[in-house]
Amino acid sequence: MALKDFDKKVALVTGAGSGIGREAARAFAGRGAIVVAADLNEGGLAETRDLIVELGGRVLTAATDVSNEAQVRDLMIRIEKELGRLDVAFNNAGITGQAHRIEDYPTDDFDRVIAINLRSVFLGMKHQLPLLRRAGGGAIVNTASVAAITGPGGMSAYAASKHGVHGLTRVAAMENAALGIRVNTLAPGWTQTPMVAQASAQNPGFAQLATSAIPAKRGAHPSEIAAAAVWLASEASSYVMGQMLVVDGGMTIGGFEI
Ligand code: NAD
Asked: What is the value of pTM for the model shown?
């Protein structure tokens, strides 16, 4: 029988209109959760909603800009009003930003990447934590990247934002561990989502080099990353707090193959 351990639980997934977020929304729904799928992209959200309904799952969609505090606050008010509780938040929406050396990086673009990838996680947790407390506890998973532990050339804004996501995660985990709320970071490696397809199309040589440098010799399927997010949000990881789970096909092992 399929595991329904999220039955009667409400799981919010941001960036649910595409890629990792869509797969996570499907996975939470498959495990019995009522999913709140949030994204800027309303077309993508509608497709995610249809996929979940096809599964027989329950979903509420919300067009939300995760970098906008008023919209994030309104979403939490709506969740509490319409669903009565929040048990899980997967703060996953993000963008890569442009690739430039630091001396050439446009400052406005730097600020935009930080707002969407990092400020969003702060705003999300700020407004999610009171609901999680009122639900008697729960779990938050924040999406970082292998760029949270490496220094990918050209990606200063992205790497800074993702290093920051883990810092925020650790503070939130410390502040909430005794309250039954676990907070952890998920750090995916190269994952075959529209985000990566777009970057690969811009720079096919780099994409080939990157994939061949991954010990697994392939990128992840988004469902492989989503599975780790669900595990971090589930009771199976009940004593895991403030950690970063790297899911990267061995990309950050270091060393050399003989
Ligand atoms: P994706 O582009 O397929 O999905 C990202 C989603 O976030 C999109 O639907 C987009 O509309 C949404 N989004 C962007 N800005 C938003 C905003 N301001 N408000 C609300 N939604 C917004 O990308 P993905 O690969 O699934 O990425 C998901 C997360 O995983 C991101 O945080 C990304 O940095 C991270 N990540 C991805 C990879 C990878 O290789 N794909 C690797 C490491 C980390």
From this structure: 0.97
